[in-house]
Structures are given as C-alpha cells and as structure tokens.
C-alpha cells in the first residue's frame, strides 16, 4: 500500500515536534476525533523517541521515517530507522515504557525489519473505536519478546520493545 | 515509499524535513503544520511566518493540478535568516505551471512577490523539474 503521508527527518529530539504537528494535519484532513488523535500522537511520539534515543550511537545522526496510511477507517503508522536494530539495552536511559504504552494505545503493534535493512515499529489504529485512550488504559504486556514476534494482549496484538 | 533513497537518507541527517503526500485533503493541513513548525523552531517572526504560510496556501491550491503519479513531495529547511521550500514530483511542466498559476488579480504573482528567490531546477535521477522557493525572515 502506498502511504498517504511520508515524513523523513533526522532522528533528533527536536524533530519529534514536527512529526506530532504533521499528525495534527492528518487528523484535521480525516476528521479524526481529538481523543483518538491524542492517542495516535502519543504512540507515534513514543516510537520516534525510541529512534532518537536508541537507534543511533551517541553523537551520530541518522534518518527517521514516518509513514501513515489510511484504509477502511484504520490508520497504519510505521516508524523506521536505519540504526542498530532492536535488542536488549541494559544501559537504557529511559524507563522502558515506550513500547508498552504504544501497545496499550494501538490496536496492533509489530516490530521488525519490514524486509529491508531498516528497523520498524508498525502500529494500527482503528479510527471508529473510541475505547483505546489514555483515560482508560488497559493492562499492558510486560516483558520483552523477540522482534517480529506478536502476541495477543487484552484483545490487541502486541510485541516486545526496544531496550 | 519503499524507504528513503540513499540521497534522502543522507539529506535526512541534515535539518531538512522531507514530506511526501498523497494528492488530496492531506496536502494543505500537513504542509501548513510542518512548515509552521520548522519556521517557528528557527525563531522566525510571526509576520514572516504568516507570509510563508500564504506561500503554502498558494502551493496547496495549485500544486495538486501538477502532481505526478498522485503524489507531491516537499522539502523544507530553515535557519533564522532563510527558509528553502522545494516542491518535487511534479509533472513535466508542473514547476513552471505552478508559478504561472500563482497570479492573483491586483496582487500579481504571489510566489514571485513573497519569495526572496524563486527558481526552477532540473530534477535529479530522471525527475521532472522542481520548484525552489527561498523565503527570507527579514
């Protein structure tokens, strides 16, 4: 499927705000509800933050790409990087909640390589279902799973996390 | 997109935002916000930022007629002095047509009057010509 929106930026913290604003435009164009858009932006922000913090070695910049496709009231968002891939990172500076949060907000989450040299987080959001939101977060999957592995968690597909 | 080309990957490590959009309702709202954010981050004064958004509005109004293969590609970069906005993925006559269409009665050509510099550059790797607009913050 050809994405409706593709955004390529340097993987820097300050660029995450641009991504968030771009999704604001997408929300306006497709009349996405404020609550759903807030969830989508939060999940995408977490995925982008993962790229910024973990994908490239300290002091190095690399590309970050965000793709969004709309079909049948479902939004698919893919966040890609060309960094060092997903794996355990004991020295992670974060709390390790990013992918759990994404899994709680998205209908499905998949981690993998997408058939290329990149690493990607693929999320889907049902735009007609108002239930997944920060106000009623369901339980989130705990523990890491091998990349590309998926599991059903609380009615949704989820998989492991970077770091 | 099957992933950024080598050139786009290299560019993406610079302060350039590359945006490719399906020709349709997304173009205006997304371009408007991305340009706003890039220029605001570069500390552009509000009136100049509004001028830049007027340029965006003009592009959004006319570029869809020249979209090649149903897509439009924009590249945006800015520092505190200048911003460069590139429009790519246009039809063969798209860049010139886009400039020609930006004429308003009484006002004249919006793109030519708002841009510090305007040029049509040959496309790379077999692409059609791209429209390059350089805007000034002063």
What best-fitting shape of chain B do the alpha-carbon axes yield? globular
Distance between the termini of chain A: 30 Å
Helix content of chain A: 25-40%
The residue-averaged pLDDT of chain B reads 89
Radius of gyration of chain A: 15 Å
Following the backbone from N to C, one meets helices and strands of chain B in this order, namely HEHHEEHEEHEE
Helix count from the secondary structure assignment of chain A: 3
Strand order of the largest sheet of chain B: 1-2-3-7-6
> Low-confidence stretches of chain B at least 5 residues in length (pLDDT < 50)?
none
Tell me which protein chains meet in the greatest interface and how many residues each side has.
Answer: A-B, 31 and 33 residues
Could you write a compact summary of the structure shown?
The complex is a heterodimer of chains A (about 160) and B (about 140). Chain A is α+β, with helices and mostly antiparallel strands and about 160 residues long. Chain A has helices spanning about 15-30, 35-55, 100-105; strands at about 5-10, 65-70, 75-80, 110, 120-125, 150-155, 155-160.
